[in-house]
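Structure first, sequence second, as always.
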């Protein structure tokens, strides 16, 4: 067989594809027995389809063109199907074949990407400290310190208990009154 004439960007390697195809029996009786050229053609077919559905060629030429990791997985799922198609030499593949199921799932994901239902880039989850707090339940400005039985100690800035203005003071600056710690 000659070297594949297909061109483009591959999102997975022949070694990865052969490893996926091998299963647990070292590839005996599976599409892993195909030549490197045949597997490369399956990868080109898959990678080109991924590029068409995403609308981009991720060739790593610039930071924005580094392929998202999911492209590797989708390419392998498609390439496994194309490799099995070659391996079966025109024989029918049952709809419950694992390669066909993976192919159908990958196509569904790629159609959702094309339709804008799924984005390929996964963002970093925001941390708890990234958000700015917002006061939700403020005391209305119609109330004063006289209404709440509290006052701010002018020396420390701490909110402390106080008495209503019509009764003798129970707390204060120098009399050791209770201090609100809340």
């Amino acid at each position: 067989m000659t070297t594949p004439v297909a061109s483009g960007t591959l999102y997975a390697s022949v070694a990865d594809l052969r490893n996926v195809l091998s299963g647990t029996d070292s590839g005996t009786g599976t599409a892993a027995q195909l030549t490197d050229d045949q597997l490369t053609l399956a990868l080109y077919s898959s990678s080109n389809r991924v590029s068409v559905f995403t609308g981009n060629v991720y060739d790593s030429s610039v930071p924005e063109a580094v392929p998202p990791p999911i492209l590797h997985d989708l390419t392998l799922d498609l390439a496994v199907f194309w490799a099995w198609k070659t391996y079966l030499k025109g024989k029918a593949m049952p709809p419950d074949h694992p390669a066909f199921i993976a192919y159908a799932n990958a196509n569904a994901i790629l159609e959702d990407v094309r339709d804008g239902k799924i984005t390929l880039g996964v963002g970093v989850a925001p941390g708890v400290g990234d958000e700015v707090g917002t006061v939700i339940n403020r005391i209305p400005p119609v109330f004063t310190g006289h209404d709440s039985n509290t006052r701010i100690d002018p020396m420390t800035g701490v909110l402390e208990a106080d008495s209503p203005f019509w009764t003798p003071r129970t707390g204060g600056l120098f009399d050791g009154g209770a201090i609100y710690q809340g």
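Margin note: The first helix runs from residue 14 to 22.
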